[in-house]
Amino acid sequence: MDTTTAAGAVPGTQAQQQRVFETSHLDVAREFLIAALGTSLRMKGTEQSRLMRHARFDFGSFCVDDVTLPLETGFDVDPLGCLAVVEPRTGWVEHRWDGGSGRAGPGEIAALSPPDRPFTALTHQLDFGSIVLGQTVLGHNALLAEGQSPDSLRFTGMRPASAGLANRWRDTVAHVRDVLAARPDAMREPLVVGEMARCLAESALATFPNTGAPEPTSRDGSDATPGAVRRAVAFIEEHAHTDITVTDIAGAARVSPYALRTAFARHHARSPLGCMRGVRLDRAHFDLLGADADADADADTDANNRATVAAVAARWGFPEPGRFAAFYRDVYGVSPYDTLAL
């Protein structure tokens, strides 16, 4: 069975592709994997009753996968151009690339290879979840030096740098999967997809050793001025409805990402992303006021109010209504449901 559905084909929203492939036939599985990975493939075994399954949610900048390979398989893979991080539930995978190798089993986390290098992999009775992050989203969330292209980012280690960072990665992935399971409608919103991509990219950059985050320079300190903050805030206010990153904000402020964060620490009550969240919260507040003004008389029910609040929250990048309500109450002193009911 091979089904592909466009779960977000709505004008102005992120195109979310959902694909589920299942087969018990080795030849069909081999053809699918070759097409999916662009790879040569070896599959050992002759059993026809073992189900191979590949389920993918593709959000463009990242993918969430669940894969079952119940036999022993071998792959020779060209450079993926992305970071594929696997977490086996059962079985194991061995992976080798020029300059390194690794093995991951249940409870372990590993990236399969540096995005720019070919690799080989051998799997045994493997069932795993994975996150695939594109080079662009990784580069745009890295604290690269001024003038450094996102494509120049390189990963130098395929295992988490520490147990604590591995747990941070697990928590981030669990958060994304929880939102995907509980609020699939929210994952159609571009700002929610952007926020999930940013969380995953920042966690991957912190977890796996890489060439990002260069040492700050004296220029970064001198660039951390109130003027940089003013330019950044103006850019955030103008572009809060779009998916922007710290790199985008820093570029508009004409400073490095490190200088931007330093400038906000010195001259603003919030971080750049905290400022952006505050602006988006304000926009959500005004949308709730407008929704109340336009509401039908028959629409003033608890269920409809909750649906409206959830939709407004997701539109502005807040996928979880409970967390949105907590942020909202901290700023406005009332719940968003109270605002809608006024």
Automatic annotation (TrEMBL):
Keywords: DNA-binding, Transcription, Transcription regulation
Domain HTH araC/xylS-type, first and last residues per copy: 230-342
A Pfam family reported for this protein in Swiss-Prot or TrEMBL: HTH_18
Taxonomic superkingdom: Bacteria
UniProt cross-references to PANTHER family, sorted A to Z: HTH-TYPE DNA-BINDING TRANSCRIPTIONAL ACTIVATOR EUTR, HTH-TYPE TRANSCRIPTIONAL ACTIVATOR RHAS-RELATED
Record protein name field: Helix-turn-helix domain-containing protein
Species assigned in the record: Streptomyces ovatisporus
